[in-house]
Amino acid sequence: MFGKEFQRKYALTDQGVQNIKAGTFWTVMVNLAVMGGMGILYLMMKGFAATLTEGKPLPGALMILLLVLGFLILSFLLHLRQYRSTYGIVYREVKSVRISLAERLRKLPLGYFGKRDLADLTETIMGDVNRLEHVWSHCLGYLYGSYISTAVIAVMLFACSWKLALSCLWGVPVAFLLLFGSRKSSARNSEDTKAAAVQVADGIQETIENMREIRAVNQEERFLKELNDKIDRHESRMIRTELTNGIFVNAASVIMRLGVATTILTGINMILSGEIGFMTLFMFLLVITRVYAPFDQALALISEMFLSQVSANRLMEIYDAETAEGSLSFAPESHDIVFENVYFSYDHDQVLKGVSFTAKEGEVTALVGPSGSGKSTCARLAARLWDIDSGTIKVGGVNIAEVDPETLMTDYSMVFQDVVLFDDTVMENIRLGRHGAADEEVRAAARAANCDEFVDKLPQGYHTPIGENGARLSGGERQRISIARALLKDAPIVLLDEATASLDVENETKVQGALSRLLSGKTVLVIAHRMRTVEAADKIVVLDDGRVAEEGSPEELLAKENGIFKHMTQLQNASAGWSI
Ligand code: ADP
User: Fold this and answer.
1) 373 lines ligand 1 (CB under 6 A)
2) Is residue 64 part of a domain?
3) Could you tell me which of 74, 78, 90, 103 has the C-alpha nearest to residue 20?
4) pLDDT for 525
5) 46 Cα–ligand 1 center, Å
6) How far, rounded to the nearest angstrom, does the alpha carbon of residue 503 sit from its chain's CA centroid?
7) Parallel, antiparallel, or unpaired: how do β-strands 337-345 and 390-395 relate?
8) C-beta of residue 437 within 8 angstroms of C-beta of residue 492
9) Contacts of 24 (CB under 8 A, 6+ apart)
10) Residue of minimum CA distance from atom 14 in ligand 1
């Protein structure tokens, strides 16, 4: 019952399965104890009836008191155990599932995040786990426990009188059949609702992120209307789902309770025909008041259990995604980066089509080429942010596809255009470069990256919070922080997306100064946008439509008749001249 399939179906950890087993066991105990209580009541009534009809002495008051007291204590203890093994433990399970999901995400290749919507992922880690938590704590243990205890009670009832047992319990399987029958439409509704919820989350995120642009083009109304429509759609889907489920669950509950009427009818008939005595019917009526109760809670949640399948599937999708693994040691002979016949595609279209080149240690290798030719892709692949389709990328003779991405990353610094800054102080943002670096080291790196001059002007210097994603800093300042980070890390390979073109002259000179300090002696792969960098490079690799079109030193390439590089240089020089 609680095998691998069960575990996958409800996205449970091994511990989670153990918890459900314990929850089921204690639920069985509680349900049977409640029936035991009914048994005590029955015996007492039987005693009283015997006193009334046959003149036997009354059952002793002390004995009754002791029995009731004993029952209450036992019942309390069992309920406590049940509570702990259903609700209590599950909260820990939720925590460990979230942590294991986060661990999993850490190991997934970046490509995975490109394919999946981030709002959707957040919804899985927060929303889906919450939904499952409810099912783990409120539903599974109760439901499975109730199946077992009802089966035990049913056997006893059938042993007493199969006719009465049948008229008492026929509603239970019918109610469940009805619910299972509605499962498909429930799942469909739930998927629709989920999709609508993700759209709302996406819409809110998009509107907030792009508020500046939206205001700039006076499109607030249109965007808010779109968002309103999405929220309305989610609301109507939600109502439809709840309504359908509500109808089925209540119908099931009513059907189950029809058993009371059929038991009374059958019982009276059987008494009249002399098949049973009144006390037997009385016992069945006592049992009937409790036999449906365990299912009530489970029934109310059973639709949630069906719906949770959608959440569990989404969770399993993350667990099942292929992770980027590899050796935890990385000791290359040198830090030359060698691309050998590399093919790569993000989705379907091939972006790199047999790229081969070498970026030598101690040299600056510039990647140039038209926009979309695959320069950034090469830089990302060099750090194994994605895995390639075929070919090899080696660093100092080691195939990077065989090295754990996190281990590999210790040898890389990346200064990309989209600098990611956190809502923390300048000091902590730079310290991200090397965990545990002393304040003095952070300051030294910041000085070398020409951060000093703008940091000194901030109200609390290095301890000034810089706002979400560095909202309080200019483009050049952000980039210098990212260079300071890389300087602090001092990794032997530097991947650089040079975006100094967007900076003003003063900033640019400062960034260039900082860069030259960062780059000396390293293997540098730079996505070059400016002629100055390109001319100072040791080697140039010209990419065109995912292939290496030209390769060589700047002088060699400039000397080439009809070369792409020569043509690009002429174009840039012409436009530079023109803009002056
Ligand atoms: P460049 O840096 O030379 O401008 P890129 O390496 O960024 O070129 O892009 C090469 C091609 O790959 C382009 O056609 C681009 O649309 C595509 N591309 C880049 N990044 C992604 C991504 N994350 N997902 C899908 N396609 C991408």
Assistant:
1) yes
2) yes
3) 90
4) 92
5) 83
6) 38
7) antiparallel
8) no
9) 140, 141, 144, 145, 148
10) 372
- Residue whose Cα lies nearest atom 1 of ligand 1: it is 372
Q: Are 342 and 393 in contact (CB under 8 A)?
A: yes
Query: Quick one: pLDDT at residue 577?
Result: 40
Distance 527 CA to ligand 1 centre (A): 13
Å from CA of 479 to ligand 1 middle? 22
Indicate whether residue 311 lines ligand 1 (CB < 6 A).
Answer: no
Does the C-beta of 114 come closer than 6 Å to ligand 1?
Answer: yes
In a domain, 23, yes or no: yes
Distance from residue 142's CA to the centre of ligand 1 (Å):
52
pLDDT of 395: 93
Left, alpha or beta for 219 (phi > 0: left; psi -120 to 50: alpha)?
Answer: alpha
- CATH number, domain of 26, equals 1.20.1560.10
Is the pTM higher than 0.85? no
Q: Where are the alpha helices (DSSP H) in 490-548?
A: 505-519, 531-536
pLDDT value of position 503 = 55
Averaged over successive runs of 10 residues, the pLDDT of the chain (580 residues) comes to 80 84 90 87 83 77 86 92 82 82 82 73 82 82 86 88 90 86 81 86 84 81 88 92 86 88 92 87 84 76 76 86 83 92 90 93 90 90 90 93 89 81 87 90 88 86 81 80 88 81 61 77 86 82 91 88 82 54
Which residue type, as a one-letter code, is found at position 522? Answer: K
Ligand 1 probe mutation, 342, 345, 377, 547, most atoms within 8 A of CB = 377
- Other C-beta atoms lying within 10 Å of the C-beta of residue 233: 17
**Is residue 338 domain-resident?**
no
Chain center to CA of 313 = 12
Q: Domain span at residue 58?
A: 4-320
How far, in Å, CA of 121 to CA of 117, rounded? Answer: 6
Residue 495 forms beta bridges with which residues? 414, 525
CA of 372 to the centre of ligand 1 (A): 6
CA distance 508 to 504: 6
Question: 111 CB under 6 A from ligand 1?
Answer: no
| Structural domain total, the chain | 1
| Domain membership flag for residue 314 | yes
- In ligand 1, the atom with minimum distance to the C-alpha of 373 is 3
